[in-house]
Amino acid sequence: MIDPNKLIDATKAQMQQAVTHLESEMTKIRAGRANPSMVDSVQVDYYGSYMPVSQVANVSIQDARTIMIQPWEKSMLVPIEKAIQAANLGFNPQNDGIVIRISVPQLTEERRKDLVKKAKAEAEHAKVGIRNHRRESNEAIKKDSKGLPEDQVKSLEANIQKMTDQFILAVDKHLEAKEKEIMTV
Prior knowledge:
Elements: H1 4-28, E1 43-46, E2 49-52, E3 57-63, E4 66-71, H2 77-86, E5 93-95, E6 100-103, H3 109-144, H4 150-183
Antiparallel strand pairs: 1-2, 3-4, 4-6, 5-6
């Protein structure tokens, strides 16, 4: 027999995980302002093994449009610079012999619209994940609800639907905020 509290808690945790994943994906969509997470995907060749740039250098923001990368070893300047270029992020790093500076270019209107489309796709992906968790929970209820009163089964399904609606609303709020951030010049 199914434990209603465990099912609700597990479903809530899975739905929260979908929203958390959406948040992390949204930070990767750049909105014209410099952010250290923009270079998180860059892998640097560090003495034969590949490591994230944040593990071989200090990544910080100099101003709203400039990312500054200061390697812990000067010999890493050129490998970091090459890794940024190879990552194909649309950045042109400048190496001054001490630090690498990346100027984040101003976004064009067309690029902003593309980024909004990407944000909407990520939000839709999160919504699909949330709905899948709802479906899995409802199937578990139908499968293992023998012995539970019918009104308790209906109440459990209603609680899961209410939770689903709340998480979908949270996704919509994240999308709306990101859309506003992208379209603000």
